[in-house]
Amino acid sequence: MLIDEVDIILKGGHGGAGKVSFRPGERSGPDGGNGGRGGDLYLNVTSDLFALNQFSKVKELQAENGEYAGGNLKFGKDGKDLEISLPLGTTLINKDTGDELELNDLNQKVLIAKGGLGGRGNADFKSSRNTTPMFAQKGLPGQELNLKVLLKLIADFGLIGLPNAGKSSLLNELTSAQAKVANYPFTTLEPNLGVLNSKVIADIPGLIEGASEGKGLGIKFLKHIEKVKLLLHCIDATSEDVVADYKVVRNELGNFSTKGGPSSGGNPKLLEKEEIILLTKSDLVNEEDLRLKIKDLKKFKKQVLPVSIHDYDSLEIFKKTLKS
Ligand SMILES: Nc1nc2c(ncn2[C@@H]2O[C@H](COP(=O)(O)OP(=O)(O)OP(=O)(O)O)[C@@H](O)[C@H]2O)c(=O)[nH]1
Ligand SMILES: [Mg+2]
Fold this sequence. Notes:
Layout: E1 5-11, E2 41-46, E3 60-62, E4 82-87, E5 90-94, E6 100-103, E7 109-113, E8 144-151, E9 157-161, H1 167-174, E10 192-196, E11 199-203, H2 219-222, E12 230-236, H3 242-259, E13 274-280, H4 287-298, E14 303-306, H5 312-323
Parallel strand pairs: 1-3, 2-4, 9-11, 9-12, 12-13, 13-14
Antiparallel strand pairs: 1-8, 2-7, 5-6, 5-8, 10-11
Bound molecules: guanosine-5'-triphosphate (GTP) and magnesium ion.
């Protein structure tokens, strides 16, 4: 199951304690080393939407602690940094301060929680006035963040349409995604992401009549379209009534928009988003049939493109359209 909301705690590593120690023998002096720094905790952004599933059981992550120091000027090792991958479209809300951070760039890397400084050992405190300091510092704790984590897909393009329209097949053709494809409805149960020329394409599970009221996979995924810049509305060219198919999905987008959606707290205006109509599986219908269906769909005053995963040229034209 896709986790798209979770509370977590992220911590930098604790600094290691400094040491109080003295050289044995005649020329005795302080030789307690310094403790190691705690590791820093970084976030990076991944196109793997399921990255939040790492928090299904573990709710707290911390970078490695710095090591304790020893005598004979043995310094504690610094703790290793920890890097956590979070999905593109993640918003982090600091529950204590209300600060928000959005991860909306695939190349983003963020230092989120700094490790604590290691404690200084007694050798470090030696001075002309105090040649035998009897104390060392404890290490400092790392930064700690108490976070609410929310996921909303941020994609340049969103593949939408009825179940079985060929959305995942197109995603797989255009990107290196390996979404499950099969000849029955509701093959895709969770959104998939792929990357084409550094643009992100989201494949949303099929929508059916009543989706905005929770039917089928329902409203849960409509909220994920809110941040998509261009809708790629897939309509199966083998359908008897492509106009009706188009209207069913548009209707659900409209219903969702007026309700605002459970999570959006506003009006996401899904119907006003730019949209291209893709008449999919064009290889399965004859030319005349295809021509008529394109003509029917043109009345919605949108660009209509026939595509087939078995027709290289159609995919090239489609890719060019996405670039422009
Ligand atoms: N002949 C042909 N078959 C296609 C084409 N695109 C998809 N298909 C087939 O159509 C069926 C459905 O494809 P999917 O990509 O799983 O459809 P989907 O829209 O992702 O379906 P859901 O995930 O259920 O919403 C599969 O059997 C595909 O092999 C195409 O261009 N030509
Ligand atoms: Mg699918």
